[in-house]
Design goal:
Strand 6, helix 7 and strand 7 form a beta-alpha-beta unit. With 215 residues, this protein is α/β, with parallel strands linked by helices. The protein has one domain: TIM Barrel. The chain has an eight-stranded parallel beta sheet. The protein contains nine helices and eight strands. Helix 4 packs across helix 5.
């Protein structure tokens, strides 16, 4: 059970389990399966695609208003309005252009979603995100000039490498910029992420992979 593993990791690494949140990554998962997962005790979900989320989530959120929905995929600026409408948190702010568009849409819709800045923690060409050395200036731009509700940082470490050094770097960047929340760790490495300060772990395969709920 994923929640048991989270509690165990928190105990081992002296973390308060109440401060570590499980995000069930539900991309490609049916509305029926999502509803089963909610009834099993999960109350935070992550989606990667705006169109898919728009098809599944409005009715689910109406039926379960306590559910929090996080956008964790690549957000194109032309989809920012839909993201602000539907999501409680946007975890993938990665450019000044997107920050300005989000500012406009948030003011227009009078909403205040939590925003995480995505950091390209391994500085990989194929990945989105702000380079580590540019995080300070980007936080200042997004928070002070755009007025966004910047609450934390998010990353995806390079595949095939130990994730821990990258998680440690993200935690360091968060401390340097007075950001309290860290979204890091997925099915294969969430325990490492918890050890290094994760507040949100994004787990999909370990919950839905075998079409069984494993909270």
């Amino acid at each position: 059970m994923i929640k048991d593993k989270i509690k165990s990791a928190c105990k081992i690494y002296s973390r308060d389990a109440a401060r570590v949140n499980l995000i069930a990554v539900s991309k490609t998962i049916s509305e029926e399966k999502i509803r089963e997962t909610i009834k099993a005790g999960c109350n935070i979900f992550g989606e990667n695609y705006i169109k898919e989320a728009e098809e599944k989530w409005p009715q689910i959120k109406k039926d379960f208003p306590e559910i929090k929905l996080h956008f964790i995929g690549n957000l194109q600026s032309n989809k920012a309005a839909q993201a602000v409408d539907l999501f409680d948190s946007i975890q993938t702010l990665d450019s000044e252009k997107l920050a300005l568009v989000l500012k406009k849409e948030i003011l227009k819709k009078n909403k205040n979603p939590e925003i995480f800045i995505q950091v390209n923690i391994g500085e990989e060409e194929q990945k989105n995100g702000i380079a580590p050395e540019k995080v300070k200036d980007f936080v200042k731009f997004s928070r002070d000039e755009c007025g966004l509700n910047i609450v934390g940082l998010m990353c995806i470490p390079p595949a095939g490498e130990s994730a821990s050094p990258y998680f440690a770097l993200l935690a360091k960047l968060a401390r340097e910029n007075s950001l309290e929340k860290l979204s890091m760790g997925m099915s294969s490495d969430f325990e490492e992420a918890i050890a290094l300060g994760a507040n949100y772990v994004r787990v999909g395969t370990a919950i839905f992979g075998e079409r069984k709920i494993a909270l």
